[in-house]
Structure formats: structure tokens, C-alpha cells
Amino acid sequence: MIMLSQDAYPTRTQNSAAILARHDPVVYEREIATKRNTGLSASQRDTYQQNGFLLMPELFNQEEVGFLFDAMQGMREEFTHASRKEVIAEPGSGEVRSIFNVHRLNEIFANLVRDPRVLNVAREILGSEVYIHQSRINYKPGFTGKEFYWHSDFETWHSEDGMPSMRALSCSILLTDNSDCNGPLMLIPGSHHHYVSCMGETPDENYKTSLKKQDVGVPDQILLRYLADMGGIKSCAGKAGSVVFFDCNTMHGSNGNITPYPRSNVFFVYNSIANQLESPKGGLTPRPEFVATRDGIAPLAPQELAVD
User: Fold this and answer.
1) Burial of 89 (C-beta count, 10 Å sphere; 0-12/13-18/19+)
2) Which range, of 23-37, 105-119, 220-234, averages the lowest pLDDT?
3) C-alpha distance from residue 201 to each of 159, 165, 206, 282 (Å)
4) Mean pLDDT value across residues 161-181
5) Residue 267: strand pairing partners
6) Closest CA to 22 of 278, 251, 284, 254
7) Residue 101 has what pLDDT?
8) What is the reported pTM?
9) Concatenated DSSP letters for 242-279?
10) CA–CA gap between residue 66 and residue 305 (Å, rounded)
């Protein structure tokens, strides 16, 4: 008799929320050639291991930021009225909230995911070759930009995409200054060591509403308070060109933006080539390719960003 292995990270299947132990490493042993590593310092690796994120100030220079900013603005202008499935509108205002799959829609961002300054950090932390699980631009316009509520990305990717283990990370490249006032990324240090199992049942095609406002897979408030009491809350403000790397299980969110100043970042989710998606939990239909990559997966090779 063959015994099916039990899911180490169950969620959305019970009537109560819970905090479960993490069973996966945070920083993985290297499986790729040492010469490809970034040379992250021991202090940087320890910071990521302990806190679940690492801020690298002004990794991209002003010329590069201007080049990427123009590409980002061009995509928004091109796609605003194009009725594209990859475009997610802000609730209420209808302004562009996010554009997904940007590494396949735009050559500049296709090159950016291969830039050694970000790609090699992902490969070093995940200890393997990687591919893009998801990419998007989050615009968060001034005055009307809505919040992103607290969540663990892995809880969604595990449940709705069938991502097997916590061997993925997000890379947020700041394309505008992120201040403490205009809705920067907030993270709970140390929360990545704990898996928060959520209540509720996932409806099919949940992404159609969750990408605007998440109602399923929302962590319990008492458990959030517990994690924040242990680790605090860190606001990742920084100058344009700075980059935040954070673990797929780090609890994070951001406030709304009522300042006149937009907060625009480009996100790349790097997943280990050894951690490709399986079937979603509960018999759900797989989310579309522009949200969760399943096709054409191949290791990314480093390529310097060319600024024209």
C-alpha cells in the first residue's frame, strides 16, 4: 500500500487558524558554481536568514532608474485602455493597480530579470538555478492607491498554484522613492520562520478578485499580533533604485497612499528550478500563465542591463 505524503503546509481546509512550523531552509546550500554567486557578505546572508528580507540601497543608479521608470510609464499608457487580462485596476478609481507578466510583455523588463545584481542574489539565497514564477509592476498612484493587506505569498502560491516548498523569493525594485508616507512595503521580521494557516475555502478563479482585494487566505488578526509582538514591523522605505529581497513566507503588506506622490515598484518572483508548480490544492483550476508560470520554464542566465 502506497502512503500519500501529508501536506506540511495545510491551509483553507479547517475552521480555525494556526501557526505551523516551517520545514524548509531559508538560505539554501549552494548547488551552483561558486563563481556565479554574488558574494553576499556573511552579514547580509545572516540578516536575510534572521529577518526574512534584505534591503540593498540604491543598487541601480539614477540613469538606470530613469530608463526603467520610462519603460514602466510607457506600459501603463499602452495598457490602460487595452482591456488586457494582465492589467488589474484599483478598486473604485479604475486606475492601473498592477500589470502582471511584465517580463514577457516588455523586453526591458525581460532583460532586467537577468541582471546579475538581482538574479545572482536569488540564485545564491535559493542555492540553485531559478526562473520567474511571477512578475508585476505595482503602481500605487498618489491620492487613490489602495493598501495591500497582510499576507504570506507562499500561503497563496502553495494553495492556489501548488508550489511545493518555500524555495522562492520576491525581488522588489523601487522605481520611485518609497517614503514612510506613500505606502511602502512593510514586513514583520522573523515571521518567515512560522507558517500561518488560514481559514476559508478558495473559490475557483479566486485571482479575479484577490488581485484587487484579498478576502481568502487572509491571516488571523490574533496571529498577526503575535508575530508582530515578536518581531516588530519594518517599513522598507528607500530611494529609487534600491532593492528589497524577501522570503516567500515573510508576512508583509502596505498601507494606502493618500500622498500626492506615487509609489511604483517592479516585482520579480524567483523560484528554484527544483520547486516547479504541482496541481493546486483542493482540485482548483490552475491560475492563468500570466499569474503563475508553468510553461516554457528554463534557468535564467545572467545578462547585464543595457540602458539605451
Assistant:
1) middle
2) 23-37
3) 10, 21, 10, 9
4) 97
5) 136, 172
6) 251
7) 97
8) 0.94
9) -EEEEETT--EEE--B-SSS---EEEEEEEETTS---P
10) 13
